[in-house]
Each structure stands twice: as structure tokens, then as C-alpha cells.
Write a structure and sequence with these properties.
By secondary structure, the protein is α/β, with parallel strands linked by helices. The protein contains 12 helices and 9 strands.
């Protein structure tokens, strides 16, 4: 009954939009699942498979300068200077003396220093993959730094200001990137799947879909719209007895067919995106065989 040439139809943006809107939840779900999967896979690989979980302790030390004898001494001890001092022999040797189980290479690879704002607050960062080693180096510096201050005339005192707990740390974490990539893959795959499905989707979405299948049945428009009122006024009787019929209401009922034949005609109510060509073929073709006049279709 339907015109089979509709498979060669040109691109219908309205149809494409309705198809996408109908299955938009699939795109959203696939994007969320992809983001979660990307994050989980990255965590599994970085923290379990690769075995390179990093641990860190950040302790702040308060520095009291001997400003009476050396008023300009503060200018010498900047962030760059402290980073070098923390890995220089006087401090490192004292740390090794405090904990003989450590070696110099372990300390040099693990310790960094920074001054983020206040020049009196030195942050010592100890980082490594061995939790116990990180703790021991951090503990050793709690003794080595105050001892270093006792030997330097420009410094009056260095004391531990904040004693932090060890934490999991990854300076090169890609958690957000992995989640974004997973979400992007989920988005693209789901969009491709929705568009691919749309090629084989025989549901009727728009006026163009209907007219390419059933050109003999005029499309009246959306119910209560100006288009519908204008088309109905022109094509149908003003006070005609028309029966509205949906595919879900269609039955093989002889009495109902008689009622339709006695009316001025049947107007099919289309459910865009849900009524398929197979379903509408059955409705339209059966009504034709029953000599029921189909005068139009509306949404």
C-alpha cells in the first residue's frame, strides 16, 4: 500500500531531530556510562595494574629569622634557595644520621621544598611509592631542619608548624581526562548508533514521511493548529461526520466498519515516531478494502 520509494528520500532535518529527541536518553546514558567506564579503567590501570601509586607528606615549617643581626637575610632564603638547601649535604647528612636505614639517593629523589606565600612558611614535600620510606624521610627531616637552623647564624629557629598525614598522590593524574575521553567515546558511539538505526527506522515522523508513503491521503497538520484548520476547511465538509482513528484503536470489527462507511470519512490520527509503515499499511489498506473513505491524516 505504501510507496516503497521512501528509502531514497532526501535528508529531512525535522525527521532527524525527532529521531534524535526520541532516543536522546540513549545518548545521555551512553555518555555517562562511557565517562564512568573511562574513569574506572584508568583507576584500575594506574593504581592496580601499573603499581605506581604515589604517596605524599606535606609538612609546613615555621622559620624564625635572625633579623637583628641580619636584617637582609630574608632576601637570601627564597623558594629556589630552600629547594636546594633541603637536598644539600648539611640537611641530608643530618637526616641520614637520624635514620641510618635511609640513603642519600632515596632522599634526593623524594624531597622537594616550596614557599607558596609567606616567606616564613617552608613546605617540605616528600613523595614516593613506598609508604614506609616516605614516612621515615619525613620524620628524619623533622629533626634535620631544626638542627640546620642551629648552625646557621641568619636563622634563629625552624619548627614544625603542621604535621600532615600521608596521602595518595599522583602528580600526573588523568582522572578527568579519562572520564572525558570515555564520555566522548560513549557520545560518539551512541550518536552513530542512533543515526544508523534511523536509516532503517520505518516509523513515520513527519509530513514528508507520510506523503512519500501514502500520497493519496492528504496530510492535514497538527490538531488544533492553523495548518490543520485551514486544510480541513478547504478539503473537508464544515459540518461533516468524520471519525478519528488511531492505529491503537483499529480493530477488525464489522460493526465499526459499517459505522465508518456510513460516515463522511475517516481521519487517521498519526502518532509520530511510534506508528510504523507496517502498522499504517495494515490500517490504510484494510480501510480501503472495506470501502472506507480515508479523507486525511493529522498528528
Amino acid at each position: 500500500m505504501s510507496n516503497t520509494g521512501f528509502d531514497t528520500r532526501p535528508i529531512d532535518l525535522r525527521r532527524l531531530w525527532r529521531q534524535l529527541a526520541k532516543r536522546f536518553w540513549i545518548v545521555v546514558a551512553a555518555t555517562v556510562v562511557g565517562a564512568v567506564a573511562g574513569f574506572a579503567i584508568y583507576q584500575l590501570y594506574s593504581n592496580i595494574m601499573s603499581g605506581n601509586t604515589l604517596y605524599r607528606i606535606r609538612n609546613d615549617y615555621y622559620i624564625t629569622f635572625n633579623t637583628q643581626e641580619f636584617p637582609n637575610g630574608v632576601d637570601y632564603y627564597n623558594a629556589y634557595t630552600w629547594d636546594g638547601i633541603l637536598r644539600d649535604d648539611p640537611v641530608v647528612n643530618k637526616a641520614l644520621e637520624t635514620d641510618p636505614s635511609l640513603n642519600k639517593q632515596q632522599i634526593l629523589e623524594s624531597v622537594t621544598g616550596e614557599i607558596l606565600g609567606d616567606y616564613r612558611i617552608l613546605t617540605v614535600v616528600v613523595t614516593g611509592t613506598d609508604q614506609d620510606l616516605v614516612r621515615r624521610i619525613s620524620d628524619a627531616y623533622k629533626i634535620a631542619l631544626p638542627a640546620f637552623a642551629d648552625k646557621i647564624d641568619m636563622l634563629s629557629l625552624i619548627e614544625v608548624w603542621t604535621d600532615a598525614d600521608i596521602e595518595v598522590y599522583d602528580a600526573y593524574t588523568r582522572d578527568k581526562n579519562a572520564a572525558f575521553l570515555g564520555g566522548l567515546i560513549g557520545l560518539l558511539v551512541s550518536l552513530f548508533a542512533v543515526l544508523l538505526y534511523g536509516i532503517f527506522d520505518d516509523a513515520i515522523y513527519t509530513e514528508r514521511d507520510w506523503m512519500m508513503r501514502y500520497p493519496q491521503v492528504p496530510y492535514l497538520g497538527r490538531r488544533d493548529s492553523d495548518e490543520y484548520r485551514a486544510n480541513r476547511s478547504h478539503l473537508l465538509k464544515y459540518d461533516g461526520n468524520y471519525i478519528e482513528l488511531t492505529s491503537g484503536e483499529f480493530r477488525y470489527d464489522l460493526n465499526e466498519f459499517d459505522r465508518m462507511r456510513n460516515a463522511d470519512g475517516v481521519i487517521i490520527r498519526l502518532n509520530p515516531g511510534k506508528d510504523t509503515t507496517d502498522v499504517m499499511d495494515k490500517v490504510v489498506y484494510t480501510l480501503k478494502k472495506q470501502d472506507v473513505k480515508v479523507v486525511g491524516v493529522m498528528e
